[in-house]
Structure formats: C-alpha cells, structure tokens
Amino acid sequence: MPIESPKTSLLLCTLCAVMICLVPVSASAQNPGVGIRQAAADAKPELSQVIDAGKALELQGRWGEALAHYQSALKMIPENRQIKTRRSIARIHYDLNRRYADSKYIKSLPNMTGTAALNMYSEILLKIQSYYVNQPNWDNILRHGLACMEIALSDPKFVKLNLPEVDPAKIQPAIDEMNSVLSRYEIRTRQDAFSVASTVCRNMQRNLGMPFQSTVYEFTCGAIIALDPYSAFMTSNQYGETMSQIEGNFVGLGVELKTFDDHLLIVNVIAAGPAGKSGLRSNDKIVSVDGKNVVAIGGDTAADALRGVEGSQINLGIIRSDGTQANLRLERRRVEIPSVENVSIVDTTAGVGYLKLSSFQKTTARDFDAALWKLHQQGMRSLIVDVRGNPGGLLNSAVELSDRFLENGVIVSTRGRNPLEDYVHRAKRNGTWNVPLVVLIDGDSASASEIFAAAIADHDRGKIVGQQSYGKGSVQGIFPLNTGGGGVRLTTAKFYSPDGSPINQVGVLPNVPVQVVARNSQPSSAANQASENVDDIMRVGIATAKRESSK
Questions:
Q1: Which homologous superfamily does the CATH classification assign to the domain defined by 249-336?
Q2: pTM of this prediction?
Q3: pLDDT digits (tens, 9 = 90+) for 213-235
Q4: Which of 34, 145, 151, 319 could serve as 219's disulfide partner, Cβ 3.0–4.6 Å?
Q5: How many angstroms separate the CA atoms of 32 and 42, rounded?
Q6: Catalytic residues
C-alpha cells in the first residue's frame, strides 16, 4: 500500500471540540473542569478531589465532560498516571457514544466486508508508522484496541446493535480470551499489531457471533486513542464536518449545542443561519426533533438527527430561556462560519479598533483583511485582536495573520519524526500593518492562537494582555482513508515560537497579566466567553492600546 500524503493543509486541532454538522463546542463550554485551571492558579488541586469529581461525571454517563475534566486536571498535575488512565477510559466511552449516535456510521457497518475493515486498519497503522510525531508503541496501540473492545461490550447500545441475541454470560469469557491471546505474543512491530488484532477479531466472531467489521473498528479507534488527546479517528460524517469547518462553511442550522439526556442546549447562534433567522437564541432548549422527544431518544441521537441534506426541513420543539414554548420548522442550509467577529472601534476618542478571532480557517485571512481596512477607514490608530476562547485551526492561517504585522523573521517552526514535517515559516515584507497592536489571550487560547500570540510577543511587535494560554504545541494532519469514507487526524509535529521556545504544556505568557474572577458555571460559547470574564481584560486591553498609540 503506497504511503499517502495528506490532501489538506496541516490542522492545529480544536480542544476536544465536537462537530455535529453545526459549530463545534469548545472544551470550556462543556467542561466544569476548566474551573480546575482557574482555582489552581496558586495551588494544585488534590488528586483525590480530581478523581472523585471525574468519577461522578462518569457515573452519570457525562463522558465528554469527564474527558475535558481530566484533560484540564492534567494541566495542573502533569503526567499523573492515574488521571491519564481515567482520561483514556473517558475518551473511549466518549468516542464510542459519538460513533453509535452517528446514523450514517451505523448504516455503513453491514455494508463493509471483513476484508475491507482489515484494509482500513492496516492503512491507519501504516499512516501512524509513517507520519506520527513519536515512534509508535505498538504494544500500547494494541492494548488500547482491546480496551475499546472491552468497554464496547459493556455498552448497551453497542451490544443491542451487534449482539442482539448473545447470552450475557458469554461476554466475560470472550474478554478473557482476548487478553489471553495478547499475553501469548510480544508486540514489537506494526505487523505484530495487525496480526494479533486480526486473530482477536476472528475469535470474537467465532465465540460471540460478533460482526467482524465492528470488532475491527474498535481496534482501529483504539489505535488512534493510544497516541495522544488530539489524534482521532473520524467516521465519514465526522470527516466531512471537519473539512467543512476548515473551509468555513457547513450545511446545517447554524447553532452551537451542548447535549443533555433530555434536551439540547443552544449555546450560540450564527445570526445569518436558519436558526438565527428563525429567532432562536442562546440558552433556548431543543426538547424534540421531528416529533421525537429528546428524553426518549437521548441527546446524542437528537443532535445526530439535526443533520441532513441541504434544503431538507426539520421540526423542532423549543423551550425558550424565559420558559415559553414554541414549535419551529427550519430548512437546513449552507451556513458560513464567521471567524472574524465584533469588528468595531471600541474607543472613538483614541481610535482603538477591536476584532474577535473565534477560529483560524481558510476564510480567516480574507475576512481579517476586510476587517482591518474597515477599521482603518473608521479612524483606527491602534488595534486589539481578541483570541480568548479560540481553540485554533489552520497553521497556514495563523502564519498569514502573523505576517500581516511582522516585516521579517521567523513566525513559527515545526519539527516532527518525519523530516517532511520540519519547516520554518518566515514573515514577508509585503502588506505589513504598522498599527500598535494588543493581543488578548486566556487559558482557552490554544494552538493556532498561540502561534499568533507567540509570534507577536517574541518579535516585540505588540503587547499580550490577559492570562497564560492553554499550551497546545502540536500540529495535526488530516488524512482521508481509502476505505470507509472517513479519515484520521494524526499529530505529526510539534511547533516552536520564533525564539525556539516550546509551546506544548507551557503556553504563551502575557506581558500584561490580568486577574479575573472565576467563570460563570453556565454554558457559554467560545465567542461569548469574553463577555463573562472580559470586563477586566478588555479594560486593560483598551488602556494598553491607548498607551501604545500615544508613544
């Protein structure tokens, strides 16, 4: 099988972001664990408290929140083995629930032959060997496949679909047999991992009647989960949604959601989308989809039902934030995802311009240029670029925006195990803006946001105001798969600031730090997070911009 190059630009992935054919929910919007970072600004949390809080979320089946909770905890207690183990378990449950809430994935399973499934698994192992940033640990990769299979066998939805008539008493012996097979082999190479996984899948088919392709998929997902929090297997739906996010548009309703067992909470609404034009607002709740109550079908299934082809219609039962009820009929349409928002002069006397960057996508540089010229025409004398809550996006987009303010020098460098990933991105002189610059950051500014902020900081091109950024210093590549219509997101390199400093687990430090009160516990979108904490940061940002423009 020939080695394939990724067919898209390198992607700096979002932080546990969830694409459901709508707008991704940021980790902080779902995650009570974000409070760990803030509460632990001066002291690390107690390990027992972290574990207990995570297990409480697990017992409620809130796997997405548990996953984000453990990920946040690892920021404060790095490399803790117990938290890493809980994070892996939460990740397996979370990914399993997402796959089995995807109707297209479920329908595709019977149509995939065992040979095709093995070819997909082999293709992914080869991509890991060829592109992954670190030398793969094949034994760990295989063990994560076994863990995925074992957890799947404890999930009622998985068992109902794949083993509707199985005697429950046969499941544990089958699990024991899986582990027995692994104990007989030493897994050192990609071929070893493939061979043992194939044997286990055949045994599961023989002993339980498990569909061969379903078992292979669990080993496939386990292989990716074993790598790092940012690598991911994507079903065909998830792959398509990721590519739509990169392009800056998608077919859907134009809402950002948080799922619950009995409703879908609308966290944010794109004003120009079908939902925005119908009058839906943040904090409205979707309680039924096409006549089916969310409490009956579950939040994930309800969210999946919002998908559909362009031009198709959907009926939603709504409870407004004021308690009133409504029934709406919406048409799914192609929606542009705004990445540059709230463009305005925030201090007319001093000419302080402001814009919010919510992500870095293909259209961001174009929209950023348009915003700069608009502000210039309105009398901008200094500029605030707000990347708080921005989880990242395209590396090239971050480089392009940095290049708008830097005349020369390094913007960012990347280094990977594959020499093709070693690259130094440099600034060019054309089209440089000399306006005094302030960049606002917080603990949820990540990835491409950190490339931009670090480039400005290292070149002393502007002031960085706010809080220490997230610290995600890795680059992901998107690889389409030849089989199954999906794809994989693999960490292929780490990136470094212009002065050579690593970003991973370090982040960018503001040179004008601002203390803020803890976040409101109510859900909020990445675009609206600023309004909850921002008063202090924004005030300091404006004061800094005014001071810089007066020099």
A1: PDZ domain (2.30.42.10)
A2: 0.82
A3: 999 999 999 999 999 999 999 99
A4: 145
A5: 18
A6: 447, 458, 472
